[in-house]
TrEMBL record:
UniProt name for this protein: N-acetyltransferase B complex non catalytic subunit
Length: 965
């Protein structure tokens, strides 16, 4: 591709090529017209029309589009793919993607049929249809290519894969899905049969399955479109069964098969396949252990537990296999771990435990004894706790108490790394026990449970800090491996402080809780200087800094993570979600740093979604990588409707509104236009890198620290709706544009209709939304929903308007008062505790500000509408009732009061955090105060403490440009 357009086809004279690449369109038109008269080649007619569409003449601008629609409608066949490339280029900004199949896709199919023996032409047409994700046209062309070139085996599998993709796509009419699915299945089963029937497996027929990727395609298609019997036949195949494929070194068919069988709850087949694959031996009868992965064992034992009531030998079969493979795995540490873990799993799932797990502080149950054996063998490995956590959760109180407090006997501190890891495991188990419901089983109320857990957290914290300080003194401290061990100890200590804070995003910030969070933050921040690449500490610090309002430090840590584009979609919410509500200055479009920060995530989606499908899909076809052929479209379609993508737009436009800027054309942005009410947004956020050391019944650490519930389909829709509301009411024509009366009426009609649609959409997503939102978001969305109904009601002068407006206005005012009262209570004091609590509530301040702006704009629009009605109708019959006008003015006044209050709180925080302010004077006492704070002395430096104050100061400085009027 040339920068100014597609390459012209071979044979075009140099003068015409030069004019085209120089974008000298009038010359191109003249030369193309001349050439068209000299030779009977429709290509030059197309070239002429496309060049005319590039001229400044408005009448010619749509020439290529008109020609394209005419060609499609009249059945014109453009045999030259180069000509269609020209039309595609010339209409790129005019043709909607959904219209491609009926226009360019249709022309591509006709061109392929007209030149079915031209491999280059037909494959080019196929590629274009795939890149535009026109599967209907692509399927026709791929079938044609396969028929025209039967000796090219790759084309057979292209056709099969595309037919399968069409069958599972919304593009396929529902009445034809089964037909295309059956067609794909029959084609690939025919290829499989050719392989099975071949006598010489080293010289297979060309139209047979030969590669692992083709085998995976077979499994995918039969698993998707076939019956239970079809899939059973496949897994029992003499050649394609998971067992036979495993013997040939191919494990992926087994992975697919066991996942599907578990999903289908076909437990007997799952048991049989796992047993057969785990039993595979070499020529000498020694187990190969090829299938001895933990996932296979886990599913095998789960299947056994489901069938043991009707298949009495299931448990014995598992035990026999474990015994057999234990001996084979002794010399292979990786497999030994898997087999030992399987023994633990079997003891928990397959054997009854009628007696206490521990008696007199000693293991008594078989399952606890097996778990202890595993711990004794694996305790020096960092993964040990993650391996055993879910099993430990199933123990009774005596078993948990034994693991946490009796199994690891007190020992003298050691410089030996494996021994240090054992001590860390002991601390993790003690922390885990403190979070277990079984530990505080007699505590009935929330306060009783907290009283039960507090001393446990404090004890583990003290032990962790003692070990942390000891590690700093050992001779090997300079090595990174030792510092990494110390980092884990710091994490355990920080977890205990976070547990003592006992805060959730919905909790009311208290001085004591904030103190614990700040102490945890500073401990981890100090540790990060020793282990700057520690991802777990970094992710926790990002959340902690955002939680306590020190967003600049969160950004500094986030930058060190260097999140790659491929995982941006799943990790970006950890930093970006609600960022503009706690640090608007960081996302401000008025600064280069803010603009670059928001552009980086926007650019990711622009680049990835530039076309319906990326070029790497074509590469996957050409490489015969059919697993990628199936995965890429799924990834791209999920990316297109990603909650993170919607979040990136919401954060950008909210930042712009906060600073009175309108850089983003919200209503034409694809992140908004591609979302409809029936769009199911993809909820994806990766918490896999966070430590998971708590009991599953208690909130995970990331749930405690984040600003609110994670991105979700419901919140994404509601967030886009409130921005649509704000954008609709905030629009004003340019000052130089004098709006005529008729135009003013049309604008009012547009606003009324738009708000009616927004109100209708709100009714679909707002009910039962509380669990997906912060309390402030719920207030905000509810108020905007009411306002989007209020404005059209006033414009239509509905019957009983006074009562309706009174009820709606009362609800809106109550919401504003509720939000103001909450924040006023936090700001009522004068010490550092109140300042830090208010810093934790910046999200609430911005949401109250946005709520007030929405109320004020709605009130202004209603009053403006009333004034225009008075001008148009002097009789007064079209005017709003006086009491409605008074209620509307009262709403506007309440909104203005809320905005003034918000501004005063930010000014108060700026005053408290300035040099010499209350925060700087009291911060050291705040950090080092209390029993837990004293243990941080000598670990956390004063420099780290004052860096935090500086971060608060910098964050609040960014609020200076926020509009409060």
């Amino acid at each position: 591709m040339h920068s100014s357009g597609p390459r012209l086809k071979n044979g075009v004279d140099l003068q015409l090529q030069t004019a085209f690449y120089d974008q000298n369109w009038s010359t191109v038109v003249r030369l193309a017209e001349k050439r068209a008269k000299m030779v009977n080649d429709p290509y030059y007619e197309v070239l002429k029309v496309c060049a005319e569409s590039q001229l400044d003449d408005p009448a010619a601008k749509y020439g290529a589009m008109t020609a394209l629609l005419t060609y499609a409608k009249d059945g014109t066949v453009i045999k030259d793919a180069d000509g269609i490339d020209l039309l595609e280029w010339a209409t790129r900004d005019l043709l909607e993607e959904q219209d491609f199949p009926k226009t360019l896709g249709l022309l591509r199919v006709r061109a392929a049929k007209a030149s079915s023996k031209d491999k280059s032409q037909t494959t080019r047409c196929l590629e274009s249809c795939l890149l535009h994700w026109d599967l209907v046209s692509a399927q026709q062309i791929s079938a044609l290519i396969d028929k025209s070139f039967p000796q090219e085996r790759a084309f057979l599998f292209w056709n099969i894969a595309i037919t399968h993709l069409l069958a599972i796509s919304p593009q396929c009419p529902s009445e034809k899905k089964q037909l295309y699915g059956m067609l794909a299945q029959k084609q690939i089963e025919r290829a499989a049969q050719a392989t099975e029937q071949a006598e010489d497996k080293k010289a297979l027929p060309s139209r047979s399955i030969q590669t692992e990727e083709e085998i995976l395609l077979l499994y995918e298609i039969v698993g998707t479109h076939g019956t239970t019997a079809d899939f059973a036949k496949l897994v029992d195949s003499a050649f394609f069964s998971p067992v036979e494929q495993l013997k040939q070194g191919r494990k992926e068919p087994l992975v697919y098969a066991i996942k599907k069988l578990q999903k289908d709850e076909n437990w007997q087949s799952l048991f049989d396949i796992c047993q057969a694959c785990l039993s595979v031996s070499d020529d000498k009868g020694v187990p190969t252990l090829q299938a001895s992965d933990w996932d296979v064992w886990r599913r095998f034992i789960t299947a056994a537990s489901r069938i043991q009531d009707c298949y009495a030998q299931a448990t014995a079969a598992v035990q026999d296999l474990l015994l057999k493979l234990s001996k084979a795995a002794d010399s292979k540490p990786m497999y030994k771990r898997n087999v030992m873990l399987a023994r633990v799993s079997a003891s928990f799932q397959l054997l009854e435990s009628e007696h206490p797990d521990a008696i007199d502080s000693s293991p008594s149950s078989l399952r606890l004894r097996e778990l202890v054996k595993y711990i004794n063998n694996q305790a020096s490995y960092p993964s040990c706790f993650d391996d055993i956590r879910l099993f430990a959760e199933q123990l009774d109180p005596s078993g948990i108490d034994y693991l946490a407090h009796h199994h690891f006997l007190s020992q003298e501190p050691s410089d030996d790394l494996p021994e240090l890891r054992r001590q860390i495991l002991a601390l993790k188990l003690q922390y885990f026990a403190a979070t277990c419901p079984q530990t505080c089983v007699t505590a009935g109320t929330t306060s009783e449970r907290r009283s039960c857990r507090e001393p446990l957290f404090k004890k583990v914290y003290q032990a962790s800090m003692a070990l942390h300080k000891y590690i700093s003194t050992i001779s090997s401290y300079a090595s990174q491996s030792t510092k990494d061990v110390q980092s884990e100890v710091a994490l355990v200590a920080a977890f205990c402080l976070i547990g003592l804070a006992n805060q959730l995003p919905s909790s009311l910030p208290t001085t004591e809780a904030t103190q614990y969070l700040v102490q945890a933050l500073l401990l981890l921040q100090q540790q990060l200087s020793s282990s700057p690449k520690h991802s777990q500490i970094s992710l926790l610090l990002v959340q902690l800094h955002l939680r306590v309002g020190s967003a600049p430090e969160a950004l500094a840590v986030w930058d060190t993570l260097a999140v790659k584009r491929t995982i941006m979609d799943s990790l970006a919410p950890l930093f970006y979600d609600r960022l503009s509500t706690v640090a608007p200055g960081m996302t401000s479009p008025l600064t280069d740093a803010g603009w670059q920060l928001m552009t980086s995530i926007k650019t990711h989606y622009q680049t990835s979604l530039k076309m319906r499908m990326p070029r790497r899909l074509i590469d996957a076809f050409q490489d015969g990588s059919y697993s990628s052929v199936l995965a890429v479209p799924r990834y791209i379609e999920n990316l297109r409707v990603s909650c993170t993508r919607a979040m990136s737009l919401v954060e950008s436009v909210r930042s712009e509104r906060l600073f009175g800027v309108t850089d983003t054309d919200f209503f034409s942005d694809s992140r908004f236009t591609e979302v409809r009410d029936d769009t199911s947004m993809n909820e994806i956020i990766d918490y896999g890198s966070f430590p998971s050391w708590s009991h599953s019944a208690t909130p995970a650490i990331y749930e405690r620290l984040r600003l609110g519930p994670p991105p979700s389909n419901r919140r994404a829709h509601l967030s886009l709706l409130v921005e649509a509301f704000q954008q609709t009411l905030a629009y004003t024509p340019p000052s130089f544009y004098k709006v005529p009366v008729a135009g003013s009426v049309a604008d009012q009609g547009y606003v009324i209709e738009s708000l009616g649609q927004i109100a209708n959409s709100f009714s679909k997503f707002l009910p039962d939304a509380a669990s997906s939102l912060t309390e402030s978001e719920l207030h905000y969305f509810q108020v905007v929903s009411l306002l989007s109904s209020l404005v059209p009601l006033c414009a239509d002068r509905a019957s009983g308007l006074h009562e309706l407006v009174g009820q709606l206005a009362s609800a809106v005012t109550a919401s504003l008062d509720s939000q103001r009262d909450y924040l006023a209570a936090l700001a009522s004091g004068t010490g550092i505790g109140h300042a830090t609590s208010l810093l934790q509530s910046l999200h609430r301040v911005v949401l109250l500000r946005d709520t007030a702006v929405a109320v004020r704009n709605a009130a202004q629009w209603i009053l403006g509408f009333h004034e225009k009605q008075k001008e148009r109708d002097r009789s007064g019959h079209s005017n709003l009732p006086k009491d409605v006008v008074a209620q509307t003015k009262a709403l506007g006044a309440a909104a203005d009061d809320a905005l003034k209050q918000c501004r005063s709180w930010i000014m108060r925080l700026a005053q408290d955090t300035k040099s010499g302010g209350v925060v700087e004077r009291e911060i050291k006492r705040f950090v080092y105060g209390g029993e837990e704070g004293r243990l941080l002395q000598g670990v956390v430096t004063d420099g780290a403490v004052f860096d935090l104050v500086g971060s608060w100061r910098k964050s609040l400085a960014g609020w200076q440009g926020v509009h409060w009027q």
